[in-house]
Input
Amino acid sequence: MNRRKFLGYTAIGLGAGIGGLTLWNPFKEGRSVSAQAITNNNFVPDVEIALTAQPGEVSIFSGKLTQVQRYTARVLKGPSSVVQTLENTYLGPIFRLKTGQNVRVRFTNQIDQETIVHWHGLHVPEQADGHPRYVIDKGETYVYEFTVANRAGTYWFHPHPHGRTGPQVYSGLAGLFIVQDDEEQAANLPTGAYDIPLIIQDRTFDANNQLVYLTGGMMQRMNGFLGNRILVNGQPDPVIKVASNVYRLRLLNGSNSRIYKIAWSDGRPLTIIGTDGGLLEKPLNRPYVMLGPAERIELWADFSNYTPNSSVKLVSLPFDGAGGMGMMGGMMGRRRGGQSLTNGSGFDLARFDIVKKETPALTLPKVLSKIEPVDIRAAVNANNPRTFTFAMGMGSATINGRTFEMTRVASDEVVKLNTSEVWRLVNGGGGGMGMMGGMMQMPHPVHVHGLQFRVLERTPGAGWQSMKDGFVDEGWKDTVLLMPGMQAKILLRFVDFGGLYLYHCHNLEHEDMGMMRNYLVEA
Ligand code: C2O
Ligand code: CU
Output
């Protein structure tokens, strides 16, 4: 993006942030009190959306409807195409916005718990980031105002109340936030019916078709929730009818803790065009891709060589190293009706039936977007990276030995606005030796709020041989999957907005246990 244009947009964003600040005290312990009133007279939205979290019921299996919680949205200002409601699913809606647009979202909580919405991957002022200190009660409304500063890509939104993100996402609350821009349009990628989002989640249902969350106590919680049914876009065993044409598939791992090793069932390579923070510079071929919780991957899917009436599947291949209570979870799961599908099991995700003959008009672009080369010299601490170690103990989940505190930062969690830094993220495993120590070797998908970063390097970790070709570190990222023993160095830049943001493990059970901390961007 043109730098001058970018600064122009974010100046508007900052104005909105400052306007909001005067109206309530964001550091008041607990939550904001006058959430209804947070609007800024100078902010002129291009798009205004009313978003509500509320209970609902959907048909997932034949027989009884499933009780869920879901987001619904209504466009108050702007073209109706900015909100796409998905039929027959608890998921969605999908927001479709353009870089540079001013967005106001009036979020109303109609569920029985405190909640707040986080725009995962978006570069927004802290008041618009959905930090848990901004939770609102049932009946209250929180007003978000921000300028879409991100490049084109597949972002998403979900609840972020402290201690309850796992169950709330699990109950159905999640939607996509798709950003479009001119650069993407110039790449000439498939659109409309040829642009298919695939949100992958695992769930467990009881005999009455109702969702079952964790039942197994602390050990299951430490492992993270693993469901025994795989859903795509909220549906089990999905069949997607396609033509013998080219498609853009946007995959989001919207699961609480499950990791997927995505591949085509017929062994042809995946053609990857995008990651968390949008399009890659150029397409890449990989035999498979690892997708940790919250990560996105975009594929160019070419069905033109398939004959009508044939089909091909996206699958998740088995892999090693997810450890935890994998083995035991399986053993106990069968006995207790719990986590019988371990993290690392193989299964089908979705079947594509080629039902119609078409001749593709589009060809895979050689260049997709411009990505600035990584310049580690720009970092103020290139020779001495800030280190954060994620570790499990018996009943604890910590970062550098600490758990979440609502409004506090430690001295090593303060960065300066307008600087770049290298962070070394370490999966430090868990305490203890032998079986217990081994069980605490768990993957940690690490997410940083408020920005997109670059992955500079990663070291091998558990299960490396079974997944080494599946890490796509070439583009912009907001979540990096760290297998047990793995370390990654990332390059971050803190621009436009000061304030308190989060970094945490996106295994939602680990997050809820406190494997989450604030970092402060000091102006
Ligand atoms: Cu998608 Cu703090 O999370
Ligand atoms: Cu974790």
Observations:
- The chain is about 10% helix and 40% strand.
